[in-house]
Give the backbone structure.
Amino acid sequence: SQQGEEDPQALSIQEGENATMNCSYKTSINNLQWYRQNSGRGLVHLILIRSNEREKHSGRLRVTLDTSKKSSSLLITASRAADTASYFCATAYSGYSTLTFGKGTMLLVSP
Amino acid sequence: SQTIHQWPATLVQPVGSPLSLECTVEGTSNPNLYWYRQAAGRGLQLLFYSVGIGQISSEVPQNLSASRPQDRQFILSSKKLLLSDSGFYLCAWTRTEGYNSPLHFGNGTRLTVT
């Protein structure tokens, strides 16, 4: 399967702490994207990072990409209870015309 | 701005009954359209995608079908539902660049087949 894998499957932290989620994939990619899903809702796009980029920032989010290790990480700094959600990575594999999603990391931020 | 509408939000259907889920996009033209299914605790499985009217690509062989009768309308159908069709169905769109642009999702339909 070409599916990427997020790690950990679940993460529980306190408000104010940083949350780090990782994604590993198998073959060369055009880009990698991170999405957030609140319970029972659709996914919301967070960040797209291209294969020739190493790091991108958006507000409290920082995404890194290491193509030599075929991995990416999503860092959420100064977490808030409202950050509680599932986070998915999705990879655009070279030669494929659609995205492949991982199973996600469930993040719980406690007040 | 662009918006995506998906309905109904929840649906309970008996085994063997037909299905029709509808999705429409506003504020853009010639979008790529997608149907995904999400099983509990699982990632998203791509079912169908379309790059234009009448053009449907199927990713997973099953008793579901999709149609795109208008540029911004995408319909997921089944003639006879199976128990295994239960799940969370998500419609999404991207700009014509496809995977090089973000996916924008609807709020999903929770389908329970009884």
Q: What stands out?
A: Chain B has one domain: 3-113. Chain B has a mean pLDDT of 92. The first strand of chain B starts at residue 3 and ends at 7. The interface with chain A takes residues 6, 34, 36, 41-44, 46, 49, 59, 90, 92, 98-108, 110 of chain B (CB under 8 Å).
